[in-house]
Amino acid sequence: xxxxxxxxxxxxxxxxxxxxxxxxxxxxxxxxxxxxxxxxxxxxxxxxxxxxxxxxxxxxxxxxxxxxxxxxxxxxxxxxxxxxxxxxxxxxxxxxxxxxxxxxxxxxxxxxxxxxxxxxxxxxxxxxxxxxxxxxxxxxxxxxxxxxxxxxxxxxxxxxxxxxxxxxxxxxxxxxxxxxxxxxxxxxxxxxxxxxxxxxxxxxxxxxxxxxxxxxxxxxxxxxxxxxxxxxxxxxxxxxxxxxxxxxxxxxxxxxxxxxxxxxxxxxxxxxxxxxxxxxxxxxxxxxxxxxxxxxxxxxxxxxxxxxxxxxxxxxxxxxxxxxxxxxxxxxxxxxxxxxxxxxxxxxxxxxxxxxxxxxxxxxxxxxxxxxxxxxxxxxxx
Amino acid sequence: xxxxxxxxxxxxxxxxxxxxxxxxxxxxxxxxxxxxxxxxxxxxxxxxxxxxxxxxxxxxxxxxxxxxxxxxxxxxxxxxxxxxxxxxxxxxxxxxxxxxxxxxxxxxxxxxxxxxxxxxxxxxxxxxxxxxxxxxxxxxxxxxxxxxxxxxxxxxxxxxxxxxxxxxxxxxxxxxxxxxxxxxxxxxxxxxxxxxxxxxxxxxxxxxxxxxxxxxxxxxxxxxxxxxxxxxxxxxxxxxxxxxxxxxxxxxxxxxxxxxxxxxxxxxxxxxxxxxxxxxxxxxxxxxxxxxxxxxxxxxxxxxxxxxxxxxxxxxxxxxxxxxxxxxxxxxxxxxxxxxxxxxxxxxxxxxxxxxxxxxxxxxxxxxxxxxxxxxxxxxxx
Lengths: 382, 382
Hints:
Two copies of one chain form a homodimer. By secondary structure, chain A is of the alpha/beta class. Chain A has twelve helices and 16 strands. In chain A, strands 7, 8, 9, 10, 11, 12, 13, 14, 15 and 16 form a ten-stranded mixed sheet that branches. In chain A, strand 1 (6-11), helix 1 and strand 2 form a beta-alpha-beta unit. The longest helix of chain A has 22 residues, at 360-381. Chain A is globular. The first copy, chain A, starts with 5 loop residues before the first strand and ends with a helix. Chains A and B meet through helix 1, strand 7, strand 10, strand 11 and strand 12 of A and helix 1, strand 7, strand 10, strand 11 and strand 12 of B.
């Protein structure tokens, strides 16, 4: 039996949608099916430039795409301020939702999206690609190894890139009405996600923004950072910026091992990626050298990470569509935790770099709220 | 003409003195001449185990070594709390001073040492070895290159090592009466020095300790960190610890380039060391890979960095002794700036993680005070 195919619709012709179109083409269980833009002409040009198969649908409005009964899933690369409106509508139209990061302007907005997806039984996943690379699984293996890594003590992550004057003037990521979270919602999202990844998605108790974030004239964050604190003494720091040369690091230090990766968001090369690790490193007797050096681990992949993301998302969609399985909650849970920390950093900046306590209870109570909603809706549907 | 030789005396038989004894032996312009310990037996064993030439002097007290007119320079690896007493005495005995780090318990103490060295016309240098490695000069070249690195935006440094239970119980670095600064004075010293190095020794305006430093029962710091802020928006963070697997990183991000080094304090190997740099890195058109990867730069050295330190110190000593040159002020100036930041981090911790402003003026006024003293002493000696 041929693998079931998920038919994707894309809302808008954002630059990132070109990369995703290729990924959908590469994923064995997905196909490009429709694209919508307020300009029919733009959508037609996008489809022809990005390998849409003959017969693909071109829509002159987002609503029209959502009304197409043959669209299984929708990829939403719209500016963040439009997420809640369109994402909720996608879910209400019973389409599965692949949503660009940051998922929303804040967790409260994202909760509306989660609620809509849960109540409509559709899969929700955010567009964080690197977590789908097989390298990430290999790193997780190392980080969770009591013998090789031990307990996490400290993690530092950075994602910076030097944007050009055109970006700093015109990109949606520097516009308060489009991507109000600026660098924090864009580059910072990855830093925070990678910190949560190394901490096995345990939320910190406290978040404090570093001082002197750089803002543009409209008050949008161009660079910032924060420190995060856990109950057990773990500490994390990160720095994200539109103003520094391209850098994307995770450095995780455990009681017994350490890990370095320098291209975690987008690997240098598509087909292979590496990380460095060492366990129980020490000095020689005279302290003039190390007893061992970190080892380089190379992980190859046939498909690029964005295609692996589409494949995983489509697999879950097929499970729901053909096997009547429930949507996988781990993906929106990770998104929500990431968004919670984004919110906390933003709040700390807005409050003059005060510590912000991550309300485990609120987080839990929201999750319980969802469980409650689900039960209620389940009640309604039975 | 044979190179003039500096005769070293060593105060005490600390573990680190073994490494320094070898370095003195390797340096072409230095020789091991005397060692002192409160136990004559211990000093004799140390001298015989560490390559002291025949005829070397063994002293049963530090004072006796300082009274030996043939000792040119003294290496002081004593616990930090003893530095000010013995370092001042070394200077008063007109011996040049190679002083282990941290140089003192605080900058006010260190100022007494500087004052004693200045007024006695002796060279003062601290025992930070990595700055003498030729790799450091190569990194400085890159960091100061407007085209390849641009302006520094962010630097993160870490030095952690996982100490064993014996260290955590017995090492002088966890004893409040010996090395009260704990991990901050030991591993943190290197982090701070490397931050100042990347910032071209411009002092930050503000220092804030990260929360949740780990202390032992006696209140000595086992792990901590801080964020540092400059007038122009530069930000630095560091983390130092006795509790994490061996890691020693500098990551410096400029507007045009970035630099990584993973063994900055003690290179993996003695004869060669490397760092990684990349300039104007970007993404390919579809943002599926980098336009260029960081390059590895290997720097070889005939002499290990600690021998290069001894050689540089001895060169300055010979310049003073045989050419009547003045002591080189750049070394104590770097030490003092490092100590000022150590003090600021400690103060921030003690004050509940409040921001501490680095008083440029106080720093300047202290330097002016020294100039004043020097002029006065010059007045006296003419």
